[in-house]
Amino acid sequence: MECHELSQKGFILVTGAAGLIGSALIRALNGRGYDNILAVDRLDSSCRYRNLVPLRLADYWDADDLLAAVLRRSDDLGPIHSVFHFGACASTTETDARYLVKNNFEYGKILAEWAVSRGLRFVYASSAATYGDGSAGMEDREEDLHRLRPLNPYAFSKHLFDCHALRRGFLQKIYGLKYFNVFGPGEWHKGDMASMVFKAFWQIRRTGQVQLFQSHRPDYADGHQRRDFLWVDDAVAMALFLAQLPALDSRGVPTGGIFNAGSGLASTWLDLVRPLFACLGVEERIGFVPMPEFLRPRYQYHTRADMGKLRSRGFAEPITALAVAVEDYARNHLIPAAEAGEFHAFAG
Q1: Which secondary structure element, helix H or strand E, spans residue 241, and what is its range?
Q2: Is residue 154 annotated as part of the catalytic site, yes or no?
Q3: Same domain, 191 and 134
Q4: Residue 142: which domain range?
């Protein structure tokens, strides 16, 4: 089997380049000696550009300019051999479904059609939010896509793309990652969509305690709602692995498809925040507040990635333990940022 090698010839195109996973991916590529990166995003007044500052890039394009070039089949982009499509509005509380469908589904559809027509390796970010309440399971089988019932417009927009890729037969040729709860450095711009690790750190710094949502189901105690949390470096490792898979396996079967991307474990919110108190050297104080009414019917109480499919393709790297990842994030990123006086809006 011949691997699809990342190359210095031509560009590695990364959309969502200034985001959490996109910037971490470029950082990992730079670490492997690749600086032929065509970064694509929509920069705004959030200072998200700061995630790109330390990175080595060959070029930067605005996302709308990229779309226009793709639609006119322009050669202005230059030679491209791989596409990582991580650009999206990822707000699970965004209510403008029209905007989400246009930005997350229609944009991705056009980009994927273009990439497949050129024979480019295409790796994209889907989301575990597409699984809804989990009643239809959380196994990454393409034949089960029609059974999923997303709970919010963001998840619906991602689900639309997965289903489109299936209908068009693209899932034999492209690689989708259903990311679970990814956290790590580079998410400071995300506001309410930042991870609970990030928000809890600043809560503890500001007030000495953490506020979590109460459970509104009798089968889950407060703080014992469970999620599959994934360190961003592991999220990137999975994307890079798929980007280099042979197009066909040893039996001649296409290796493309949709893959769960998580730790494979369901950890509680208490498991997530407790290491922060130890890192900050303060007494553990955790309180609980009512979950907003609008969120209750669309809240996921238990998520866990079945990682068998990705492992069966040969992904053998260990997943960083949650406590280790939280401590790394706090000690090597959040505490230094706090001591440098960054993130004033969170520090209070």
Answers
A1: helix 232-243
A2: yes
A3: no
A4: 11-182+229-261
pLDDT at 346 over 90: no
DSSP result, 49-62: GGGTTTS--SEEEE
pLDDT digits (tens, 9 = 90+) for 116-138: 999 999 999 999 999 998 888 89
Whether 194 and 289 map to the same domain: the answer is yes
Mean of per-residue pLDDT scores for the chain: 93
Contact 88, 177 (CB under 8 A): no
Among 261, 282, 311, the domain-final residue is 261
CA neighbours closer than 13 Å in the CB half-sphere of residue 255: 24
Out of 34, 190, 299, 309, which one is annotated catalytic?
190
> CATH code at 246?
3.40.50.720
Which residue in the list 107, 124, 131, 154 is annotated as catalytic? 154
Residues 177 and 200 in one domain: no
Query: Is 190 assigned a catalytic role?
Result: yes
pTM passes above 0.90: yes
List the Cα angle 31/36/42 in 5-degree steps: 95
What is the chain's Cα-based Rg? 20
| CB atoms inside a 10 Å sphere around CB 206 | 11
